[in-house]
Fold these 2 entries.
Entry 1:
Amino acid sequence: MREESVVWQLPGGVWNPGPVPAVMGILNVTPDSFSDGGTWNDVDRAVRHGVEMQSQGAGFIDIGGESTRPGATPVSVEEELGRVIPVIERLAKEVDVPLSIDTMKSRVAAEAVQAGAAIVNDVSAGLFDPDMATVCANSNCGVILMHMLGTPQTMQENPQYDDVVQEVRDHLLERMAVFTAAGVAPERIVLDPGIGFGKTSAHNLDLLRHLDTLCATGRPVLIGHSRKRFLKSILGREVEERLAGTIGVAIAVAQNGAAIVRVHDVQAVTDALAAWHAVTDSGP
Ligand code: PMM
């Protein structure tokens, strides 16, 4: 279970995880993300979808301009900036919830924060761009550090661990130490085991079953499992048929202490978590 005292320091103030994980809505402004590539890569449509996700219960909106699916082609800084900055500028005016920029590039992070993002979500935890920790330290943004084995180009080539739970935790604590040494207060950091980033289905399940190990670090834990390929291993479902599986895992990780779930289907997951909470809450 989650430690009661865990808080997340964001530019707008302290965020306290509640008994139900907050939902982070995914807004990929990319032509090639694995499940929604090409759907929101037009500024008007992307902004409308962000507004809609807020009305469906999203507590955060995560905007990404580069696909990190296995084998994805990297994009230039300019290309990524051109995709995300207009969306962040408009959404910052149209929604109240904190916006997050999903990027591995420090320049994109810096300009996104200038444009109104409150959180930097770096799936490489600063390993892709060594300036990322300094850029985060020079602002007051929240920071999400995720575990990935290798790079998006190589991560699914036979990933191996002796003990995936301990190795992911140790790696995240090491990366957190790099960010805190650069000047990012630990209270600004959220940790994420990186479901599907250099992991077999068995590795993903092991991490989800043993979330308590990550929760015991004292930092809030984010899980990004939405529609991912391990659901195909479990259920045999293609990407557009993974909503029920996504909901099942969201409830399991809520029970296991996750503070935030990052999902595409905000309404459905919000409802499922609320129903789960109504049944399991012991009441006043
Ligand atoms: N997964 C993806 C992209 N960004 N960020 C975090 N923190 N955690 C994740 O699991 C994660 C992420 C890839 O999935 P997408 O293409 O659906 O965005």
Note: The longest helix spans residues 164-182.
Entry 2:
Amino acid sequence: MAIKDFYLGNKPYAIISFFFLVTYTVIAQKEIEVPISQRVFELMAKMTLEEKIGQMNQYNGFWNVTGPSPKDGNAKEKYDHLAKGWVGSMLNVRGAEEVRAVQQVAVEQSRLGIPLIIGFDLIHGYKTISPIPLAESASWDLEAIKNSAAIGAKEAAAAGINWTFAPMVDITRDARWGRVMEGAGEDPYLGSLIAAARVSGFQGSDLSNPNTVAACAKHFAAYGFAESGRDYNTVDIGENTLHNIVLPPFKAATDAGVKTFMNSFNDLNGIPATADKHLQRDILKGDWGFEGFIVSDWGSLKEMIDHGYARDKHDAGSLGLNAGSDMDMESYIYISELQSLLKEGKITIAQIDDAVRRILTVKYELGLFDDPYKYCNVEREQSISGSQEIREGVLDMARKSMVLLKNDQSLLPLKKEGQKIALIGPLAADKNSPLGNWRIAAENNSAVSVLEGMQAYKGNSIIHEQGVRLVNSIPAFHEEVSINNTDKCGFKAAKKAAKKADIVVMVLGEYGFQSGEGRSRTKLGLPGFQQELLEEIYKINPNIVLVLMNGRPLVLNWADEHLPAILETWHLGTESGNAIAEVLYGDYNPSGKLPMSFPRSVGQMPLYYNYKSTGRPGADGADAGSVFWSHYGDEKNTPLYPFGYGLSYTEFEYSDITLSANEFTKGGTIKASVTISNIGKVKGKETVQLYIKDHFASSTRPVRELKGFEMVELEAGASKKVSFEISEELLKFYSASQIWEAEPGRFSLFIGTNSSTKRKADFQLN
Ligand code: BGC
């Protein structure tokens, strides 16, 4: 009525109404403008100690939440805790309806109605699967990687998720470790840029946008350095490696505004990371000013007992909180021990309050207090899940992630017509392996296989034979598949197919679950009978294109020596077969570059390009008469394919490097340039890479380190000048004085197509 009167020109009413309108607007605005810190403060003033500790407690999904509620056992207890407000977060509850059901218990039954934050391992896509992170990293395309995280976030957020346990930013140098598939590879510079891209992809510019989720940098820290590449194993590294190699991607994630961190299972230099106060309180929350919260890894508080570090659960709770772990994932320790620890004076209320403040702040930032059901709209879920936009996004990422390892005699791209193709291998028609390891919400067998992708090109005839079968040792459990090593009955048909074919495409590698958590391996060849099959087929028809599917670097010496063409496709996700067929047929020109070195032998592990020189460096091919240099008697030191390596269907030529000056003083810069030309026949992309070597320093420095890269796309015959600015910032490292600084002296820079480039120029920092 008031508004109507106002417009009808009824003066007294109009004035009163106007007054009310203004007052209402001011109050409403004030409501909105109450800063989050104030809202957290006011809420915490109402919370009991139990409720505060509850916020620090995270449970795994524990019953079919949309069915009848649990009556007994552990699930009943968890349900009661939820209803009392003693649970701050749940993980692995998914789907708009299921999340709404648990959220309802927390919000509508508990005294203060504090919403849950819902965590999930959104590692490479939710239902629509994108390439495994190692594959995405091979694109070196930061925009594409960011977009891939953003579309994953959109699909997951529509299914109730608002927090992903990603990105995993662990640098790793050991392909035996199964989790190399989950990270960005071996280099801290590339790894830092990718960490930041993923964080901003997941979180967007506004965390309260219902298409974004809070990100989590994990595993803090040094999990990727597990001894012998055996998962969960001890890590023993010095300060130099910790600061120069391990920590930079975590710092980059922090600077990109990541909302949460996860600590890790491993013991780092004698202290389980979960209880590492120096890492969590001094470095992360202190020096780096991280304002978000830290979640433990799954049961990692409890595992400190097995590490022989915590006496019992009680002790583990005290060690964890004192060290700065804010939330307990599935150890049930904070919920059972923190109250008594507080009474005993082993922890402080300030520590609890700090943890709760951090957790509630992220919940407010997500907008969960304004609408706890904002991620729980079933119609929205249905319209976003598997949508065209998301499928196109994962296809785009898949194309960009492949690395062409060999292409002699230009066997690739394949002719589109008139060819008889034998498509052979256990993974050729497999619709499960391409989904990789972290695909909890995806339907099994939902990827486009290579066979399907190739069949979409109608001009050739394709005969498909498995050659080696996939064997499911526990039929009900789709993860327990292996590649057959007991019977060769498929060899005969595969050989027959190869004999008749113009070209053989062999799809070999690792089954999707052969890499990932708990999937360490001591052998890095092709598993099962695949190598034998490959060699048998080669004797019949050597015109082989090897299409590899794997989650880690493999040893490929035989293939490299004998085969004309090798394409690394990793595990590329839902659109796998379509992307692979586009590359095989030349509709997409591959441009990926390896984010990890590929070894010649498993005995070279750990293997990485930015190693340090020994006092006896020698060189592969050095004088065979002497053995007293750092080398192996039976293998080269160098990798088979170096970090940064990858070919194209066209060819690029680099000019010599020109420097704008060959010295500069701190605060100044110089410019290093090359001209790159496409001297092949088709358009293509090349990632121009800059490496720098610091010749002498207060602590020893790597033989070279990646310090810049630029992706250029050139038409056949075209050229472009690419320049890098060299600044003091670029030359900084964690020095013997335990600070990041650039030390004056002599440097070399290298610009080229991969980390082994010899194109070099020298300069001096004064
Ligand atoms: C892994 C984490 C993961 C967590 C929750 C742990 O086993 O190490 O990376 O986020 O489980 O699924």
Note: The pocket of beta-D-glucopyranose is lined by residues 121, 165, 218, 297-298, 517 (CB under 6 Å).
